[in-house]
Structure formats: structure tokens, C-alpha cells
Give the backbone structure.
Amino acid sequence: MIDVINLQKSFGSNKVLNGIDIKIEKGDIMCVIGPSGSGKSTFLRCLNCMEDPTGGQIIFNGVDIADFKVDINIHRRRMGMVFQHFNLFNNKTVIQNIMLAPVTVGLQDLKKAKRTNVMIKLTNLFRSSRMKKDLVPITTNKAEIKATAKENAMALLNRIGLADKADVYPSTLSGGQKQRVAIVRALAMNPDVILFDEPTSALDPEMVGEVLDLMKQLAKEGMTMIIVTHEMGFAREVANRVLFIDGGQILESAPPAEFFGNPKNPRLKEFLSKVL
Amino acid sequence: MGDFSKKVDAFLDAFINQNGYAKVLEGLQNTLLIAVLGLVIGILIGTVIAIVRVLPKYKVMPRILNGICSFYVGLFRGTPIVVQLLVFYYVMLPLLGIRMSSVNVAIIVFGLNSGAYISEIMRSGILSVDHGQMEAGRAVGLSYWTTMFKIVIPQAVKNILPTLGNEFIALIKETSVVSFVGATDLYIAFNMIGSNSYEFMVPYLVMALIYIVLVLLISLGIKIMERSLRKSDRRH
Ligand SMILES: Nc1ncnc2c1ncn2[C@@H]1O[C@H](COP(=O)(O)OP(=O)(O)O)[C@@H](O)[C@H]1O
Ligand SMILES: [Mg+2]
């Protein structure tokens, strides 16, 4: 699903990613670990071009999205992202947070379809009756897009037990609640993959569990996930592959049993001896 | 004291019997009109400039626009507003062959001028919004502009509301220079009353009081607005 080929990223003269090659298949749960400053976040943020790669390719569903010419916004709809500091929209209520992207994108597509149809009608005036083009079928309208998004958002809130918080602002939620809302905000777009950047690192210890539990549920349902984390227990239990990144390179990539039980790279051995 | 009450009588006579009140109302109206419309124009111009100035600068076009905006802001912040009024009214308009009432000139110049100041306020407002808000919007597939207008700007405006209120107060006070291009404001009105009654103490005192009351009312309005905005954050 995602094919990363020789990915490189520099900030000025600081070379942060030095040629990363990795294939992510549908249904993969990939955990990324490594020392602080090793380029884990940068790697993750290059996958949806939040940071523009300075070299290499990122083939997502057959398209190289590292290419400046592609419309990245279209592809980002298919890739969710969950941040360390939640980044819920402060000026929107919880349910508005979840609905904003589906509604905005839905309305944009509707507008585009209508515009296309106007163009087709205009050009049809100059076509012979045999050559006339068919209109793009429009099966929805503004109200329906909003209603569907709202229904979907409520279902997601019910799922995480926060339906009663639909109309509050994020500032009134606990950290664990914020992160769970952030996760369903990503889910609301029905993405093919969700990228997590240390989703539990900013949480009080007693809230880590609720967020990890939700992520485990998603994993069981077959969601493709790429997770930068320091939660070794979680990685061991949930991941089907674990990556060790240091110095902007993948130094080890193995299933968790092998990764933790029989690490080969000396730097990984040293790292694991410190954190386990 | 008898002297003072004589002065008050003279003022009242000029104010009521010699149509002074009509002139004062006209002046008050102009003052408010220039300040309010100036603020509205200023907010529009200021927002556009602020957005240009925070635009990522990899490409050529944003850099050119940024240069133009820097020049604009420097020009309007670097010269006194009286000079801007005089140049606009006595230099620009005749050169362009345009006729325009002095109140309209004042509205435009105050709008252009406050646009330069508000752009700086708005820019710091935008920069005060956590960058994570923009990232979260982009990450779900919203464009830079959609995220800017739906997420960042509303939060920026909320952060700078008190400062915008101060800008409005500053505008109200600064309108006292529009008589330089012949517009009737409070100063002109009370100056006329003073000339009619050969007595300036009471008119200018009343004028000062009106300015004070105006400013106090606006400050109060800002406070109420801030409080209701803060409440909307913690409604439940
Ligand atoms: N936006 C940026 N500008 C400049 N340098 C950056 C930026 N983001 C990250 N870096 C640098 O890239 C390196 C890797 O950072 P990061 O990917 O955040 O590491 P990790 O997530 O593994 O802790 C660090 O040296 C950091 O200073
Ligand atoms: Mg990081």
C-alpha cells in the first residue's frame, strides 16, 4: 500500500533521513522505535508529506506522492494522522472536530461535480447529438452530506463512550479523551492507513491505557497503522513488524518476537538494554 | 463661580439656540463613521497583509507580495496620519482628477492607515495560534486556505480582540485631525460653538467629556465581548 523508496530528508545541511526503504502492506501494524532525535517523527511526517522529502519516492496506492505535482490534499484524505499533542481544533466542538473534514471535502467534491457538469453542458452545445457527453451523476446534496457526517461522527463518539461530550469544546476534555477524539477524527475519513506519532507520550500514566486499548481495537479490525512509540509492551503485543531507526536509517526490521527476543544490530541491543 | 455659570449659559445658548447641537451631532456622526468604517477597512486590509506575511516563502510570488506588503506597512506606519490625509486630499486626488468629500477621504485614509497597524496585530495573532492546528487541518486533507480561514484565523481573531479594541479607541482619538482636510468632527463643532459665544472653556470641556464617555463605552463593550467569548470555551 505504501512503498517507501530511498527516502531522504534534510533540514538545511542537517541530513535527518539517509535513504529509507520500506514496504507497508494493507493490514500491517508497524511500530517504529529509536532514540530521541533519530528521525522517527520526520520519517512519519514524510509519509504524508507534512515534511516534503528532499529525495526518494513514496508510492501510495500507486502514486508517487513525494512528487510536487500531485495534489497532496487528495491523498491525505486516505491517510489519517494522530499527533503527540492531539491538535484538536480549539475553536470547534468535539463533534465539529470530527465532522469538519468529511463535510468540507464532501462539499468540495459536490461543487467540483456541479462545475464539471456546467462545462459538459456548455461544450455539448457544440457537439453533434451522437457525440454528446454524459453528465457526472450527482446523487447527494449539501444537507445529506452534513447529515451523514453527523450520523457517522455520533456513531464514532458512541464507540469511544464520549457521546455526551459531542457539544463541548476540547479544552474541557482530559488528555486521554482528547487523544481518543483525535483518533476517531482520523477515522471519520475512512483512511487506508493511520500514522501515529507518539500518541501516548503527552498523557498522564493513568490515561495511556484507554488510548492504547482503542488502538488495539483498530488493529484487530484490520486498520493499517504505523506507530512511532516508546511503549515496548504495546509494540510486542500488537505490531506485526517493528522498525528500529537510528541516525536516519532503518537498522533493524523484524517481527516483534525476533526483534525483542533476538536483536541483531548492536545499536538496537544497546537501546533495548536501556529501555527494557 | 458666577463667572463660570455665565460661561455655561453662553455655551447653552450657542448649543441650543444657535444650532450648535446639530453641528455637534454631525461631528459625532462623522467621528464614529470614520472610526468604524476605518476599522472595518483596516481589518480587511490588515488580514490580507497578515496572511501574505505568514505565507510559506519557498516560491517567488509570496516573496514579491511580501515585499509589497512590507513597503505598505512601512509607509503608513512611518508617516504621521495628518501627512497622509493632506497628501491624499491635496496631492493624490487633484493629480488623479477625482472629487471626493472630505469625510470619505478620511474614511479611506484611516482605513489604509489602520490596515498597516492591524496587519501587525493580526500577524502576531496568527503566529500565536499553535502550529499544530494548521498541521491537523492539513493532515485530514484540508487545503492551506481552508485551514487558515476555518481554524487559524478564528482563533487568531479571538486572541487579538482586546488589541483590536484598543486600535478602535486609538482611531476614535485620532479622528480629531480630520479637520485638516475640512471634515466636520467634534473639534470643528465645538470650535464653532466657542466662536459663536466668544467663550471656549465650556465647549472644549464638553468635547473632552464626550471623548471620555465614548472611550469608556467602547472599553466596556470590549470587556463584555471578551467575557462572552471566554464563556463559549467552557460552556459545559
Ligand atoms: N522542522 C524542522 N526543522 C529543522 N530541523 C528539524 C525539524 N524537524 C526535525 N528536525 C531535526 O531532525 C532531527 C530528527 O528529529 P525527529 O524526527 O523529530 O526525531 P525523533 O522523532 O526521532 O525524536 C533532529 O535533529 C531535529 O532537530
Ligand atoms: Mg518525535
About this structure: Residues 94-124 of chain A form the longest helix (31 residues).
